[in-house]
Design a protein that fits this description.
47% of the residues lie in helices and 22% in strands. It contains 14 helices and 20 strands. Helix 6 runs antiparallel to helix 8, helix 6 runs parallel beside helix 9 and helix 10 packs across helix 12. The chain is rod-shaped.
């Protein structure tokens, strides 16, 4: 019975949409589980980063308290005595790059180490810099350590300054100062576990910093002077808003620090990728049928019985691998599956998908043949090369069945063919010989030139083709294909026959109890010049 375009469209589009929708749903569900795991990891990283900052700052404050105690215990501290004591507590690999003493007039008088960029800080008058003077006055009033926000230091790089007031009884003696370089403070965030691979932003007050600590950004501008002047910068990051994961805050000496951690992008999880791969394969197959059905509709209406057989063949080809893939997805999805079994199962899934792609390729070739749009470009080609190319993708299958090959092809023998099409035709024949020959058997492949043509013989040692189906071996939906237990039997031979005929060749076979020999006749060319048709 003929079917309308609407009926054909409904019968193909609806299953495709259902399969695609189910696949999208399952992929999204599994991916959501993986994303939740990554978000929890981001929470852990932000907490670790905040704790790391707090610990490093507390260590720095402890160092300054030691300097204050040294100062209180001395009647008068000379520069050389300050340097001698500072040398004992200074850690070259720590975040503090300079230890200073600020006098009661808020001017830097002593610095250790007294070298390099630190020389720029000597005699620095903090009264000229509100971002320094305010913390000094606060520390003096509260008699407790106070930290500045991120500022551009006199040394020329971003940092923070910690002021520890020094009092002997009620006498104010100045400030013990620790100058912290942010790039040193943040260096663990750039490439060490557990921070490696995460996008991290550090925010303190109105300042935003990346993990390299190289630039201070404020309101989309970068700080360019110790006094706090800024200039526009298109690369400036902004403070994240509406973030629910990967955020942690700590407070150090009155200065808040907030860590924002972007969850690591790991792409699709293995299970989500496997589901997406299966869905894509099914959608491609359904899409292929939808695209080709309209092109062959007139043929379908006149050959209903024949095409029903063809549909049964295709269904058989796809049902087994899709059923196996569905089972494999369950294996991979099971958290109790061992890692080695999961890896092995994923490898098998890739193999099945590759086989499905080859099946789709064969169906596409068949469609182009029947619509008359398959392009054939013949040229003089080595027959030995054709045989080797056909075997290249079959050796694994042959190894599984312990099949060996006996090849006798003269190296100088050539044929006038489209090389890729001839390889496809020959591969289908050899693949059948592997499938239906005895396990542990041998396949003979030979070639010779006769009557202006090249004959390629492929002989297996199987039980032969039953007489009752011998006449339908090259039919598109042959009984041989339906009775076999392996996909692609009849279809492969049908495609081989069509390809050979398009190139001016033929295919035939002889069979008996000792095996079956397929003979592929290819057009040959006498002479050295290649000829294209």
């Amino acid at each position: 019975m003929k079917r309308s375009n609407a009926q054909l469209l409904t019968s193909l589009v609806l299953p495709t949409l259902l399969v695609a929708s189910f696949g999208i749903f399952m992929t999204a569900l599994v991916q959501r589980i993986g994303d939740d795991q990554r978000l929890r990891s981001a929470d852990d990283v932000s907490l670790n980063a905040a704790e790391h900052l707090k610990t490093r700052f507390e260590t720095s404050v402890a160092t300054l308290r030691g300097i204050a105690a040294f100062w209180i215990g001395s009647q008068e501290v000379k520069p050389e005595e300050f340097e001698r004591y500072a040398k004992t507590v200074f850690q070259p690999d720590g975040p503090i790059v300079a230890l200073e003493w600020v006098d009661t007039g808020n001017v830097v008088r002593m610095v250790y180490p007294r070298e390099g960029d630190n020389l720029k800080a000597i005699d620095l008058d903090n009264n000229k810099f509100p971002n320094r003077l305010t913390p000094i006055l606060t520390a003096k009033q509260l008699r407790t350590p106070v930290m500045t926000g991120p500022i551009l230091l006199a040394q020329g790089f971003p940092g923070v300054v910690i002021y520890q007031p020094i009092y002997r009884d009620d006498e104010y003696l100045g400030m013990a100062v620790g100058v912290v370089r942010l790039s040193t403070l943040f260096r663990e965030f750039s490439g060490t576990t557990p921070f490696k691979g995460y996008g991290i932003l550090i925010v303190s007050g109105d300042a935003v910093l990346r993990t390299d600590g190289a630039v201070i950004f404020k309101y989309g501008r970068k700080v360019v002077a110790p006094s706090g002047e800024t200039e526009p910068d298109a690369s400036a990051p902004s403070i994240p808003t509406g973030v629910m994961h990967g955020v942690a805050t700590t407070d150090v000496e009155g200065q808040p620090w907030t860590i924002f951690v972007a969850s690591k992008s790991g792409g699709l999880t293995p299970v989500a990728a496997a589901i997406a791969l299966v869905t894509l394969a099914v959608a491609l197959l359904c899409g292929f049928f939808l695209a080709t059905l309209y092109d062959v509709r007139s043929t379908l209406e006149t050959t209903v019985t024949r095409e029903h057989d063809f549909a049964a063949l295709v269904s058989h080809q796809l049902r087994a691998p899709l059923t196996e893939l569905n089972w494999m997805v369950d294996v991979v999805d099971d958290p109790q599956t061992p890692a080695d079994e999961r890896a092995s199962t994923l490898a098998d899934m890739r193999r099945i998908v590759r086989q499905g792609v080859r099946t789709i390729g064969g169906l596409l070739t068949l469609s182009r043949i029947e619509r008359g749009i398959l392009e054939i470009k013949k040229e003089e080609t080595s027959v030995a090369t054709l045989v080797e190319d056909a075997l290249s993708t079959l050796r694994e299958a042959a190894k599984e069945r312990r099949t060996t090959f006996h090849i006798d092809v003269p190296p100088q023998l050539t044929a006038l063919v489209d090389a890729s099409k001839a390889v496809d035709a020959l591969r289908n024949v050899i693949e059948n010989a592997i499938k239906y020959g005895p396990e542990g058997g041998a396949i003979d492949i030979g070639a010779l030139k006769a009557d202006g043509s090249v004959r390629v013989m492929v002989r297996d040692r199987g039980q032969g083709i039953p007489k009752e189906i011998g006449q339908t071996v090259f039919d598109k939906a042959s009984a041989f294909a339906k009775k076999g237990t392996t996909e692609g039997a009849g279809l492969g031979l049908y495609i081989s026959k069509m390809l050979l005929e398009l190139m001016g060749g033929t295919i035939a076979f002889n069979t008996g109890s000792g095996g079956t020999t397929f003979v592929l006749t290819l057009p040959a060319e006498d002479g050295a010049k290649p000829k294209k048709a």
